[in-house]
User: Which sequence fits this backbone?
């Protein structure tokens, strides 16, 4: 049985009168692949490869079906082969002059590194979600309705006229890998209602797939498909961008295509696991499904049933895709799981736990009001996990309170209660230590709820599930972002001018000079930020480069030309403005009269304009010439990406300040010596050139960093403005990492996401709600000074307080996102 496919393939090739080299060339596969299939060394023929071979051999329908059937039987246990392209790099033309084996080996190595990074990431995620504590909840599924599944002949990849019956795809969480392998097309849709375990299943699929992965197999990668706009970018280009975002090292130039990420995608070495099809905007689901149908990539897609069914009704099912429906948890599942998540009762029967009364109500009185409410709620892994966090993992909380029908009059109220108490439960004071660190930093639950609510509201405004540190300021109005950036730039530049200038001139003179420099720099860089960033309603993406004397000269030169032009214009405007103000000010101080003062200002404006233009242009261009991609392992999580971007900006600051300062100082010396014949006598000294070079180098570098780098925008908004206005804590990184450790957030590559969309929507809704944030209590539960308590609830009354000390009532504007994102 194991050699049937090999023998059949050899016979068909001999009958066609082809050599291995000829068949490999016509089919577009590697000779090594073909030789391995014929000798039996390769035991996992892929459907894509088999179809290419059949086309190259010119087989009739019956022979094609026999070859495919032999390939399916060869994989063993009746499992059909994966549709992941076999030795997929064989289908991509190598670089001219580069051996095919070297090209394939390079992609194999990059794919291996990507697989290791993906495996490490999702293993950590399972640990943080306590998936295996004490054991995974029994996520099960059954085949979806036929109207949501393609024709089985298409799923089996059969030629015209062939018929094959449906597959039995029912299974449970630990069987997802086997279920997927039984699908010849390699395309599966997983449907489930909110909280049913779609993402958990996607994570388990990725880890199972990676565990059994061969070196040349496609790497399964989870993508949050809700951020894809199919009308603006193709599917493969979107996959490439997402890979580069989460793995910045893949931005390096590839052997084929503009980047390593593009080479992996184009060679089908990435198996997309598309999580959250229902999160795509209503009007974009149809074009998204049509774009997916235009590809033959193997993939796994998760969605809520209603949204997927609506998209199917508008166009068609996902081509060649089978579909499964996740089923609800049963009372027996709860009876097995919940008691094992809590401690044994003290005294009496050691087998009794706090969950026994609740489980008894579900078993013995399932039609009572309390039993019916809980039976409707505790049917999804999400709600069971929340119930565990609130009652099993939190001392002093009795799950019997869930049976109080006066408090919870409907299943929706029970769900809201669990979502509301989850943050308080995970932020309760804990004495334990984290491995390799000191005691866990305590955060007041009410403060944490408010800060998390702002983050959720921020995501609602951006209409995105991805919490990207470089976009935390993008939820503000464009005018606010521009004004804050300009003010910070003005302040920093003015302080630098004053601090350095006092080494050369009097404090009074430098205060006036610093005020002028700060205002002009703020206006210039503010305008630059508006036109380059804010007007596009975009954010400054983190730089994926570091300064290094290497790269492709031609490409770097083309990239440097626009920066050279921008630098020339910006330097000219700033220099003329500064020179005009300085010259006019000096003329008025010396009582030269307004006409002579204006004339002096015009002359100084021309001189300084030339100096700064000739310095800023080359400095900006030089940054482009000396950029090269980061190492592939440079960023595996948001914090490492932030640190990598800080190192990039630090290197750019050093280079910019040294180059720009030197060019300004040298240019001042040259221009002041060449201009007297045209502009008249000029009082200037070498000391003035040194002073101007130092101030310009430091001030210009810091202004550039704050305005046009992701790290600088992080400092402006996340380290200064948002904490100052009370929306976020002062140590944002510590708070985000702590929220990840507590299981409120999860990491998805270089971004954070809320643990579940339902939790995000709940926090955003309560943040926007009429209650307003509640004041965290002081020691012993007392309200802080100046706050009154609501005697009915025991919580501080509505006084308009916000974390951060501001005493104003805030009503956030409604979400202006592209789509109305509901819980998933």
Assistant:
């Amino acid at each position: 049985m194991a050699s049937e496919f090999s023998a059949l393939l050899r016979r068909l090739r001999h009958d066609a009168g082809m050599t291995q080299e000829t068949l490999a060339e016509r089919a577009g596969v590697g000779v090594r692949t073909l030789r391995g299939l014929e000798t039996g060394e390769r035991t996992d023929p892929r459907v894509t490869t088999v179809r290419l071979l059949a086309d190259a051999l010119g087989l009739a329908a019956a022979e094609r079906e026999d070859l495919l059937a032999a390939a399916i039987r060869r994989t063993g246990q009746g499992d059909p082969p994966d549709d992941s392209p076999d030795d997929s790099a064989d289908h991509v033309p190598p670089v001219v002059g580069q051996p095919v084996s070297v090209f394939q080996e390079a992609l194999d190595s990059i794919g291996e590194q990507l697989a290791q990074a993906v495996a490490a990431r999702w293993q950590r995620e399972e640990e943080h979600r306590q998936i295996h504590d004490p054991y995974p909840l029994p996520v099960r599924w059954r085949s979806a309705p036929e109207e949501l599944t393609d024709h089985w002949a298409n799923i089996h990849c059969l030629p015209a006229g062939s018929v094959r019956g449906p597959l039995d795809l029912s299974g449970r969480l630990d069987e997802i890998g086997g279920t997927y392998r039984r699908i010849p097309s390699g395309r599966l849709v997983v449907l489930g209602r909110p909280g049913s375990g779609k993402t958990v299943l996607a994570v388990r699929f990725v880890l199972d797939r990676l565990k059994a992965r061969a070196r040349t197999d496609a790497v399964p990668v989870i993508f949050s498909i809700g951020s894809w706009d199919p009308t603006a970018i193709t599917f493969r280009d979107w996959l490439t961008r997402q890979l580069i975002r989460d793995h910045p090292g893949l931005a390096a130039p590839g052997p084929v295509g503009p980047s390593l990420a593009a080479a992996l995608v184009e060679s089908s070495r990435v198996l997309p696991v598309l999580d959250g099809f229902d999160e795509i905007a209503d009007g974009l689901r149809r074009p998204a499904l049509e774009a997916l149908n235009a590809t033959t990539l193997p993939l796994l897609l998760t969605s809520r049933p209603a949204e997927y069914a609506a998209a199917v009704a508008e166009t068609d099912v996902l081509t060649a895709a089978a579909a499964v429906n996740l089923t609800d948890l049963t009372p027996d599942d709860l009876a097995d799981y919940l008691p094992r998540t809590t401690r044994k009762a003290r005294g009496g029967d050691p087998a009794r736990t706090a969950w026994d009364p609740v489980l008894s109500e579900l078993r013995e009185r399932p039609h009572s009001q309390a039993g019916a409410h809980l039976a409707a709620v505790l049917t999804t892994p999400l709600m069971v996990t929340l119930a565990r966090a609130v009652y099993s993992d939190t001392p002093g909380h009795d799950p019997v309170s869930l049976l109080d029908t006066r408090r919870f009059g409907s299943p929706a109220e029970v769900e809201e209660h669990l979502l509301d108490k989850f943050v308080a439960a995970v932020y309760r004071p804990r004495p334990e230590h984290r491995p390799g660190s000191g005691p866990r930093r305590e955060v007041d639950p009410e403060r944490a709820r408010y800060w998390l609510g702002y983050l959720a509201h921020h995501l609602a405004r951006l209409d995105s599930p991805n919490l990207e540190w470089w976009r935390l300021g993008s939820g503000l109005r464009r005018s606010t972002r521009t004004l804050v950036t300009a003010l910070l730039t003005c302040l920093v530049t003015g302080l630098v001018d004053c601090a350095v200038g006092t080494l050369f001139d009097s404090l009074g003179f430098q205060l006036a000079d610093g005020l002028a420099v700060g205002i002009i720099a703020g206006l210039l860089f503010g305008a630059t930020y508006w036109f380059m960033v804010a007007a596009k309603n975009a954010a400054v993406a983190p730089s994926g480069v570091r300064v290094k004397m290497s790269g492709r000269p031609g490409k770097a030169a083309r990239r440097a030309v626009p920066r050279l032009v921008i630098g020339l214009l910006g330097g000219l405007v700033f220099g003329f403005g500064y020179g005009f103000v300085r010259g006019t000010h000096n003329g008025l101080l010396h009582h030269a009269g307004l006409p002579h003062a204006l004339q002096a200002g015009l002359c100084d404006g021309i001189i300084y304009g030339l100096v700064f233009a000739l310095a800023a242009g080359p400095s900006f261009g030089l940054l482009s010439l000396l950029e090269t991609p980061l190492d592939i392992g440079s960023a595996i999580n948001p914090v490492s990406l932030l640190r990598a971007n800080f190192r990039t900006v630090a290197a750019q600051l050093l280079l910019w300040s040294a180059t720009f300062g030197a060019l300004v100082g040298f240019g001042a010396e040259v221009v002041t010596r060449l201009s007297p014949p045209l502009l008249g006598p000029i009082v200037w000294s070498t000391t003035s050139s040194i002073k101007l070079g130092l101030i310009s180098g430091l001030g210009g570098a810091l202004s550039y960093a704050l305005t046009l780098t992701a790290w600088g925008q992080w400092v402006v908004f996340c380290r200064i403005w948002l904490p100052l206005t009370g929306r976020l804590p002062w140590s944002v990184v510590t708070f985000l990492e702590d929220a990840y450790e507590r299981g409120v957030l999860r990491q998805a590559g270089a971004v954070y996401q809320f643990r579940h969309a339902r939790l995000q929507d709940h926090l955003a809704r309560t943040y926007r709600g009429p209650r307003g944030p509640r004041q965290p209590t002081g020691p012993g539960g007392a309200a802080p000074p100046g706050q009154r308590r609501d005697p009915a609830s025991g919580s501080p009354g509505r006084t308009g307080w916000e974390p951060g000390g501001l005493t104003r009532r805030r009503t956030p504007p409604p979400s202006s996102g592209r789509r109305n994102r509901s819980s998933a």
In short: The first strand starts at residue 140 and ends at 143. The chain has a mean pLDDT of 77. Residues 42 and 345 are 56 Å apart (CA to CA). The radius of gyration is 32 Å.
